[in-house]
Amino acid sequence: MKKIFKSTYIIICAAASVLTGCSNANWELKGNISDADGQDLILENMSTIGWTPIDTVKLDAKGDFRFSQPAPAAPDIFRLRLNGQTAYFPIDSIESVTLTGSAKNFSTGYRLSGNDNARMMMMADSIINASIAAKGEALTITDPELKRELGKIILVNPGSVVAYYIVSKTVGNAPLFNPSEKMDHRLIGAVANAMNIEHPDDPRTAYLKEKFLRNRRQEAVSQAADTIVANVTTLFEINSHDATGKKVSLNDVASKGNVVLLNFTSLTRPESIEFNLALNKIYDEYKNRGVQIYQVSIDEDEVAWRTAAKNLPWICVYNSPTYTDPILKYNVGVLPTTFIIDRKGELSERVTDIDKLPQQINKYL
User: Out of 3.40.50.10860, 3.40.30.10, 3.10.180.10, 3.30.950.10, which CATH number does the structure's domain 239-362 have?
Assistant: First the structure.
């Protein structure tokens, strides 16, 4: 069987000092900053010794600027510094990002465009800055509603440079996401897990893995010998509706003595078609031997999901991406993610390669 168990997310987050390499192709940052005549605009990148200047332009009355640098070997985070104020932006590869703003409120009033990551990073910073302005730094880092909003951005693509940026961000001298706090810790774990699966050699992956494991909560995960892929030991209830509108309880399905494959996916993504075709072959082979599938589809478009789900031969329930509880409890960092529930109704292991799924199922039959 052709291996198709690949993340639908693209890992980024690379340490510039290790992964930024020379290339014949450049990325470009251009834009305009008003009210900054005669001021130095400094382009910086994170290195092993901190933020390091790599280029500078002196702005004139018009405020136009342009930077061009070799494309990094992996997506990275850069920032502009202007008279003590900073603005952060992501670079994926060969692309052009535009930044506009004013020297009067550069850190909080800049605008980014050019790619989805740039827009998402700007959105995250805008939410954080608004909270700081309204409540102050101390209340911002303990605001659960703020973190739920940021969590939605993270879970759109937990392996992205934006996700890494958010869970690593500090407000004042304190981390915005504190790994000693339960929900914060789970979000850090989701990002670390996505990065480890997709880019295990990334130095930033190692940083998040260490941060996550150092503060892990035993009731949710157990540390494997050399991996962050969490072994969730508790079967958390999911009770969502299927394509007919009927609520289906995972606990009920798992209590009937079958081996259950708990799969998190997104039916409206094109790559899910190939994954479900492979899953269907396995289901056809094992359904008469006591194997059931409980598929949780995380889709923004419920109507499109319902159309895709109504013809599936197994249980498929809907989960809105804004409802993050099961995603966090099961530490779902990438889609698809699959677990095996044994005949006793216990969550036994996470599947990392669908080609090996039949071999893993056989252990529980």
Answer: 3.40.30.10
Per-residue pLDDT of the chain (365 residues; tens, 9 = 90+): 333 333 333 222 333 333 334 345 899 999 999 999 999 999 998 765 678 899 999 999 999 999 999 988 777 899 999 999 999 999 877 789 999 999 999 999 999 998 888 999 999 999 999 999 999 999 999 998 899 889 888 887 888 888 999 999 999 888 999 888 888 888 888 888 887 776 777 778 888 888 887 776 443 443 333 344 444 456 889 999 999 999 999 999 999 999 999 999 989 877 778 889 999 999 999 999 999 999 999 888 899 899 989 989 999 999 987 777 788 788 776 788 899 999 999 999 888 788 889 999 999 99
Tell how strand 259-265 and strand 247-249 pair up. Answer: unpaired
What radius of gyration, in Å, describes the C-alpha atoms of the chain?
23
Does an H or E element contain 67, and which?
A: strand 64-70
Beta strand pairing call for 337-341 and 96-102: unpaired
